[in-house]
């Protein structure tokens, strides 16, 4: 299957600072990328969908000014958690797909964010 | 809105047993159904993807079935091993272009040596 690389795998930051997470499709062009958040013992919840070159579409309840998503190229999307607070501590996972309808989604390894 | 439910939430079995994990979804108008494995603190490992025109997929000791009409999928694991211990997630693909993935909460499997 295709490879999606997510970096960093783990990050600890101080409250009030910003953290950037990168998601790269290594061997295919990802027209659409997705960002999920997973709290302990919970399922993955979709935060936003981003299409290359356009603004991200955020799910209800997700603050777009707090979770900045940039999908500047067909192989890279970034999620920036701005002014992080302890309640933002979570596991963030990205997913990438080609533009074709009904294609498989490929997932990154996830990023464990801890805000202290 | 699609809802995906996985039962049981946790399962403990002795090594060597065959087992079945269940996944149900409320909206049968799905495209694909995918099973993943997640180890503690790790990302998702894709196990099997069943497309809407298929009824099952097999990979090694794993077999996944899909019954869209009843809104159910099962993951069968044969001859379980301690290395199979992990959380298993199912996800349905639905919506326009099948871009909406909805995940269940997972079944945490423990295989006891």
What key attributes describe this structure?
heterodimer; A: 116 residues; mainly beta; seven-stranded mixed β-sheet; four-stranded antiparallel β-sheet; globular; B: 113 residues; five-stranded antiparallel β-sheet; 58% strand
Can you describe this structure?
The complex is a heterodimer of chains A (116) and B (113). Chain A is built from no helices and 11 strands. By secondary structure, chain A is mostly beta strands. In chain A, the strands form 2 sheets. In chain A, strands 2, 4, 5, 6, 9, 10 and 11 form a 7-stranded mixed beta sheet that branches. In chain A, strands 1-3-8-7 form a 4-stranded antiparallel beta sheet, with no helix packed on it. In chain A, β5 (44-51) and β6 form a beta hairpin. The termini of chain A are far apart. By secondary structure, chain B is an all-beta fold. Chain B contains no helices and 11 strands. In chain B, strands 2, 4, 5, 9, 10 and 11 form a 6-stranded mixed beta sheet that branches. In chain B, strands 1-3-8-7-6 form a 5-stranded antiparallel beta sheet, with no helix packed on it. The termini of chain B are far apart. The relative contact order of chain B is 0.34. The mean pLDDT of chain B is 93. At the A-B interface, β5, β9 and β10 of A face β4, β5, β9 and β10 of B.
């Amino acid at each position: 299957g295709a490879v999606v690389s997510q970096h960093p795998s783990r990050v600890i930051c101080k409250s009030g600072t910003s953290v950037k997470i990168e998601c790269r499709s290594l061997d295919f062009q990802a027209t659409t990328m997705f960002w999920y958040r997973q709290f302990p013992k919970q399922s993955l919840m979709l935060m936003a969908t981003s299409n290359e070159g356009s603004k991200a579409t955020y799910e209800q309840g997700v603050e777009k000014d707090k979770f900045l998503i940039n999908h500047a190229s067909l192989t890279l999307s970034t999620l920036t958690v701005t002014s992080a607070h302890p309640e933002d501590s979570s596991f963030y996972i990205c997913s990438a797909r080609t533009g074709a309808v009904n294609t498989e989604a490929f997932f990154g390894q996830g990023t464990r964010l801890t805000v202290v | 809105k699609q809802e995906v439910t996985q039962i049981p939430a946790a399962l403990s079995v002795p090594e060597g047993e065959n087992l079945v994990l269940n996944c149900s979804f409320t909206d049968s108008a799905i495209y694909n159904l995918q099973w993943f494995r997640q180890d503690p603190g790790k990302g998702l490992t894709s196990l099997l993807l069943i497309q809407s025109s298929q009824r099952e997929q097999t990979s090694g000791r794993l077999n996944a079935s899909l019954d869209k009409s009843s809104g159910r999928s099962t993951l069968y694991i044969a001859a379980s091993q301690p290395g199979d211990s992990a959380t298993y997630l199912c996800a349905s693909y639905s919506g326009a272009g099948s871009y909406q993935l909805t995940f269940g909460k997972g079944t945490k499997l423990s295989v006891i040596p």
